[in-house]
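[Backbone geometry]
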Amino acid sequence: MRHDFADRDLLLGVLGEVRDAVLITDARLALPGPVIVYANPAFCAMTGYEPEELVGQTPRLMQGPLTDKDLMQRLKEQLVSGQAFFGETVNYRKDGSPFRMEWSIRPYPATGTPRYFIAIQRDVTALRDLEQQRRQLQALTDIQTKAGTAGLNLQAMREQVAQIGLAITGADGAAVEEAAGKEMVYTAAAGTAMSSLGLRLPVSGSLSGACYRDRVPMYCRDTHNEPRVAREAADRVGFRSGLLVPMIHEERCFGVLKVYSSQVGAFSDSDLDILNMASRVLASSLYDAQSFEQQRQQRTQLIDALPILIARIDMQLCFREINAGYTEWFQRPAGQIIGKPAVDVVGPELFEQALPYMQAALAGEEVIFEQHLWQPDGSMMPVELTYIPQRDDDGQVVGFYSLARDISDRRRAERDHLTQTLNRRGFDARLDIAFATAKRYQRPLSLIFVDLDHFKKVNDNYGHAVGDEVLRTAAQVLCEQVRDSDIVSRWGGEEFVILAPETPLAEAAQLSERLRQRLAFFQHPEVGQVTASFGVTELASEQSERDFINHADQALYAAKGAGRNRVECYRP
C-alpha cells in the first residue's frame, strides 16, 4: 500500500491470495476500539464470518470468556506506544466455538501517526493440541517408569506425583494434598506451589476438601467466581484457575492432586481427563509401594485402553515395549513383536517409508508424518505417526517412542463429497507435510495438474448429472492407477491434482502418460471418450510452495495450448 488503503486493486489482488488470516482495522484506540475495514478470505474461513458481517465491527466481536483480558490490555498499551504486538489467546468463531489464535499486529504506516492496524493471524489450535498430546504421552510413559521403580520412597513419590501433574498439564504450580484430621495439607509441591508446601486448608468449605470428600474431578475456571476458594490467598500464590482430581485406590481416597495457573480458564477438558487417569495410577503407588506389581498391571491396562498404538523402539529399530493395541492390530501375541525388528513386524514396504523418520528420531528430532497401515481385514487405515526420542539420564538418545493415531474421521472431513478424493483443505495439509519432508531430507517430489478437456461441453450437452458422473469416473480412474503413497485431490471444477512423493520428474511424466491413456481409453455410456491434459513439475531445491504449484499450472496450460490430450512438463 504505497499511497492509501483505498488502493483496493493491490489489497484484493495480494491479500486475497495470502494463506494467513489478515485483518485490517482503523487506528482508533478509544472505546469501543478499532473498527474492522477489511478481512481477507483466509480470515473469513478461519472464523466463519462473511466479510460484510465483519466490516464496521470491532474485533471484540470474536472475544469471549477464555480470551486473555490481561493480554488484550497489553496489546492496547503497545499499540498506543506505536509498537508492534505479538501474542496468542483464545478467540471465538461465529458458531461460538473457541480456537487458539497466534497473531501479530503492526501499525501502518510504521512511522508517524498510524492510520490502520494490520493483523496477521493463524489458528494454532491443532498445533497446541499436538504439543499437549506429546506432553501427555511422555508423562504417561514417565508414570510407568518412575512410579514402577522398586524401593519407592513415599515422600519422593509424592514429589514425583506433583512434578508429573505439572508436566501433564503445563500448569504453573502443582500440589499433592492429603487429609490430616479436618484439614487438607500440602505434602508435596512443584512449580510456583513450592512456596505453599505445608499449607493447611479446612476440609469443610474448601475446594480441595470438596474434591476429597465427594471424590469427583473438578475444574475451577476462575477462582474469583468460586466461593469455596479463599480469593486473597489464591491470588497471592497465583491460583486463578485449576484442576483438582481425587487420588483413589481400592475405594480409599488417598488425597487430591491439584494443578493451577495464574490465567483464567488455562486448562481444557482433556487436561482434566488425563490428570484424572494419571491420578489413579499415582494413587496406587502413594498408597502402597509394596503392591507395585499389581498396580503395574493397572497402569498397563490404562495405556492399553487408549485408542492409539504406543511402542518403544530401540537404537537397533527393534520393539522393546508395546501396548495391547499392537497385538490386536497385527494379530500376533506380544512375544512375537517385542524384541523383533520393526521391518519384520510392519513389512518391508511400510518400513522403508518410515525409515527416514525413524532415523530422524534417533538423531534427536521429534517427527510427525502420515502413513497407511494394513488392518487385519485387509483394508488400509490412515494413521498419524509421532516419533519422540527417548533419552537416558545423560540426555543421550537410546531409542524413541512411537504413537500411531487413527485419522480416518479427519480424512473423511477432508474428502470432496462428489469424487471422494481429497478436497483443497485436505490437499493443502498433505502438501505442507510432503513439501517440508522433501526439503528436509532432499527427496524428490512431483506435482501433476489434470484438467478434463472440453468439460463445459459435457455439462452443456448432457446436463450436470452426467457431468458429475464423468467427474466421479475420472477420479476413480486416477485413484486406481496411482500408488498408495500418491495423493489425488479435486482442485476445483474439472481439475484434479496429484502429489507424488519420492517421484522424480521423469517418473511423474510416465505416470501422467499412463493416466492420460487410461482416461482416453475409457468410454462413458452417454458421453463416450473424455480426454485430459496434464501438467507436470518436480520440486526444485530452493523453490517455494507457491512456485511449485504455479509451475505445474503453467505446464498444464502448455498442454492445453498444444492441443490438449497430452502431457507437458515444466521447463524453466
About this structure: The two ends are 31 Å apart (CA to CA). Confidence is low (pLDDT under 50) at residues 1-5. Residues 356 and 424 are 27 Å apart (CA to CA).
